[in-house]
Design a protein that fits this description.
Distance between the termini: 40 Å
Largest sheet: 6 strands, mixed
Strand order of the largest sheet: 7-4-9-2-1-10
Strand content: 5-15%
Number of strands: 10
Order of helices and strands: HEEEHEEHHHEHEEHHHHHHEHHE
Helix content: 40-55%
C-alpha cells in the first residue's frame, strides 16, 4: 500500500474527498442558469436538524455529547474551512483530553492502494491534459478567471486541464493557500495535543483512485458549476469564512454554519459522490458507537454540516436510540474531563 505524505493528504482533501462542509455560500445561485442539471436539493447537507443547532454554554467552541450508562463521547463540531492557526479557547478541550480513551479525528485522509497507484497516476495524467483551461472559457469568464489567477500569482500553464472540475479544484487550492485558509485546522492542532498527551488517535483513510475516476466521469456541465462556484468564492474573498470561524470559536453554532460551501454540492453531483458522502457519515457514526463500548470518555471531531444535517452523524445516532445532548444541555454525568464538581457542557 502506498500512502500519500501528510502534506499531500492535506492538499488533496478539498480536491478529492471532503468536498464537504464548507457551509453557507451564496455562490450556488450563479450555477442556476445551467438549469436542472444540478438542483439545489442535491446538496446532502442542505437541511439541518434545527434542534441540534444550539449556542454553546461554556467558553470556546460548542460541544455535543453522546452517552450511555458509563461512557461520554464529547463531539466537537469543527469548521470545514478556516484560517490557518486560528485562535480558540482550548480550556474545555484540554480538560476533556485528560484521561480520554481516544481522540477521533475527522475521517478525511486519503491514500492509494497497491495497483491503484498506477490507475491514480494515469487518471492524474488524464486530468492534467488539454490545457491551458482558460482557452476553453467564454470571453467574460476568461477575463474573470485571468484576473483571479493573476491575483494569486499563477500563470496560465498552472491550469493544464480541459476538465472544469479539475480546474476548479486547482483554483480552490490556490485560493485557499494564498488566503491562508485550510480544511485541516483545528484537527491538526488537536492531533498534536492528543499525541503529546499520550491519548490514542483514531483516523480513517479512503482510497483516492475511485475519486479521481469519478472526476473524469463528471459531465462538463456539472464540472462547470463547480468551477463557477470556486471562481465566485475567489472573487468574493475570505470574509465569510473568517466571520464564520470567529463565530465557531465563541460557540455561535448558527454563525459558524454561515461559511462558504461549494464542494459538498459538487460531491453530490460527481458519480458515486452521494454514496461516498453517506459512507463517511456512517463510518463516523460507527466510530462514535465504538467509543461508547469502553467506559470513560472520548473526544470525536466531526465537520459541522455533516454532524448536524438531516441524515448526518447525530441524526443517525438519534434514530438508533443513542442519547445525544446539545451544547445547551447538561451531559448525563460529570465524567472525567469536565472538571471536579462541574456539570459538563453538551
Amino acid at each position: 500500500m502506498t500512502k500519500l505524505s501528510r502534506t499531500s493528504q492535506y492538499r488533496a482533501i478539498p480536491a478529492l474527498i471532503a468536498l464537504l462542509a464548507l457551509v453557507g455560500s451564496p455562490a450556488f445561485a450563479l450555477a442556476q442558469p445551467l438549469g436542472s442539471a444540478a438542483p439545489q436539493s442535491a446538496d446532502p447537507d442542505a437541511v439541518l436538524v434545527e434542534e441540534l443547532v444550539v449556542m454553546g454554554r461554556l467558553p470556546g467552541p460548542a460541544w455535543w455529547t453522546v452517552a450511555d450508562a458509563d461512557t461520554t463521547v464529547h463531539v466537537l463540531g469543527v469548521p470545514s474551512l478556516a484560517p490557518k492557526r486560528m485562535e480558540w479557547d482550548r480550556a474545555i478541550f484540554e480538560r476533556r483530553l485528560q484521561g480520554a480513551n481516544a481522540v477521533v479525528l475527522p475521517f478525511n485522509n486519503i491514500r492509494t492502494k497497491g495497483i491503484g497507484v498506477v490507475g491514480a497516476g494515469l487518471n492524474l495524467i488524464r486530468l492534467r491534459s488539454g490545457g491551458p483551461f482558460e482557452a476553453r472559457l467564454d470571453p467574460a469568464t476568461r477575463a474573470r478567471f485571468v484576473n483571479v489567477r493573476e491575483g494569486l500569482g499563477q500563470p496560465a500553464k498552472h491550469y493544464p486541464t480541459a476538465n472544469p472540475l479539475a480546474a476548479g479544484v486547482q483554483l480552490a487550492g490556490d485560493y485557499r493557500e494564498a488566503k491562508q485558509l485550510t480544511t485541516t485546522d483545528p484537527a491538526k492542532l488537536v492531533e498534536l495535543l492528543a499525541r503529546r498527551a499520550g491519548v490514542p488517535v483514531v483516523e480513517k483513510t479512503y482510497d483516492i483512485g475511485p475519486l479521481l475516476g469519478a472526476i473524469l466521469r463528471t459531465s462538463p456541465a456539472v464540472g462547470r458549476i463547480c468551477f463557477d462556484e470556486v471562481l465566485a468564492q475567489a472573487e468574493a474573498g475570505p470574509g465569510l469564512t473568517l466571520a464564520a470561524a470567529r463565530a465557531w470559536a465563541r460557540g455561535d453554532v448558527r454563525g459558524a454554519l454561515e461559511n462558504e460551501r461549494t464542494y459538498e454540492r459538487c460531491l453530490a453531483m460527481v458519480p458515486g459522490g452521494r454514496a461516498f458522502d453517506k459512507r463517511m457519515k456512517a463510518d463516523t457514526a460507527a466510530a462514535i458507537r465504538r467509543q461508547l463500548e469502553t467506559p470513560g470518555h472520548a473526544i470525536v471531531l466531526v465537520p459541522l454540516r455533516p454532524l448536524l444535517a438531516q441524515g448526518g452523524v447525530l441524526d443517525r445516532l438519534q434514530a438508533e436510540g443513542v442519547d445525544v445532548r446539545t451544547p445547551g444541555e447538561s451531559s448525563p454525568s460529570p465524567l472525567a474531563g469536565d472538571g471536579a464538581g462541574r456539570t459538563p457542557d453538551g
